[in-house]
Design goal:
With 184 residues, this protein is an all-alpha fold. It has 6 helices and no strands.
Length: 184
């Protein structure tokens, strides 16, 4: 196994572990706040009355999907990292548009994969940020320093912060890896 593969496993593992830890904290704080799930904002629970079994199974499935997305995303990112001579803008062009110099159908496939990777990258980090924000909100509720029913503005703010973090990571991580590769 070469050093790039080890880095892919490490980065995917760290990102997945952070998400899984936030998922566990979210479940734990949810149980402390409302063992009967009265304050749960998950639509399937709030509107349709699903219980803890649904919540646990969905948390496990989302964690598994997160691990798979992280592995795929980091492998693709690592495969498309350029040599140190490539400009930063070319890095994103290569990530999002693919590296195919073949036929137009290969190029379109590479573009579709690149766009999917970009969306997956942003969504994966937004999910991590969303879990972290939810955990912080739950802790504030447990401490009694937040209202028990968050208004729509809090939910919207959480969504914008999570999406912003996802976009931030999309632009920072490949740049950081590219700079790190230049100095190595």
């Amino acid at each position: 196994m070469d050093s790039k593969s080890i880095n892919v496993a490490r980065y995917a593992g760290i990102s997945s572990a952070v998400y899984f830890l936030a998922q566990l904290i979210d479940l734990g704080t949810t149980y402390l706040l409302s063992p009967d799930l009265r304050f749960e904002s998950n639509v399937m629970i709030a509107k349709f009355g699903f219980g803890w079994s649904y919540l646990l199974i969905s948390a496990l499935l989302f964690s598994l999907v997160m691990v798979l997305i992280q592995i795929w995303m980091w492998r693709r990112l690592n495969r498309h990292l350029p040599d140190e001579q490539m400009a930063y803008t070319a890095l994103y062009r290569r990530l999002l548009l693919g590296g195919s110099d073949g036929s137009s159908s290969q190029h379109e496939t590479a573009q579709a994969r690149g766009a999917t990777m970009g969306v997956a990258f942003v969504a994966a980090y937004a999910a991590i940020a969303s879990k972290a924000i939810t955990c912080a909100w739950n802790v504030m509720l447990i401490a009694g320093s937040a209202p028990t029913h968050p208004p729509l503005i809090v939910t919207a703010t959480k969504s914008f912060l999570a999406a912003g973090f996802g976009l931030f990571m999309f632009f920072v991580v490949p740049f950081w890896l590219h700079r790190r590769q230049k100095t190595a």
